[in-house]
Amino acid sequence: MSTAAGPREIAGLSIEVATTPADAALISTIFDEVWSVRAMVSPEIMVAALHNGAYGAIAWRDEMPVGAAFAIVGLPLAGQSAPNLHSHAAGVVATAANGGIGYALKLHQFSWAREHGFGTVTWTFDPLVRRNAWFNIVKLGTQVLGYHRNFYGQLDDGINAGEQSDRLLVRWDIAGRDTPAATDFVEAKADDVLVATPADIELLRKTDTAQAANWRERQRAAFEAAEKNGLSVVGLNEDYCYVLRSNKDGAQ
To answer: 233 with 219: CB under 8 angstroms?
Structure first.
């Protein structure tokens, strides 16, 4: 395992780049704890990917592993010449959540991608999870590329079991940037379409599965109708609604 200084200073935290089979096994174990599943990403697949230029990292706090990230190499996105790095998973264990470690991991990933010649970084997230929408779009400043119905198929981990895996695909542009730039909330215009998010979909999934499923159906219908009409996500407003605008309008 090699150490790379992360761009985020948190007391007792270090982020190390994964290089060995033991590193891959530890990342796999961390993911299994975060998502309450067995072998979400097998160590063998991870070893092969790392050997071929993929990204893996482990976050340590006070000498304990508390988070990890894994990303795979992809072809350049449309209009790009440099390869894309697709972040498959990044997570922090429950005992270390909400302490800035997830943010530190993403900044580390951004720096690693830049240093290794990637032009973009992409990843997906569940658009029903409000805190993730804010984190990815506002705090990390990503661009939403599109909505994907049931992207991974049916999942059986402890977080997503029984859920349709609808996802938003987001993108970071890396070339020419030292760090990602956060964005502001977007003020909707008259012709924009707003797609709402529930205050806490994770709680709803535990307390009212019917209502949670209804949120998925309504949000899916809204996104797919808007995209069919040539609208795309330009950001979040202060009510944590996605703001979708005509592609002809260009800038936010």
So the answer is: no
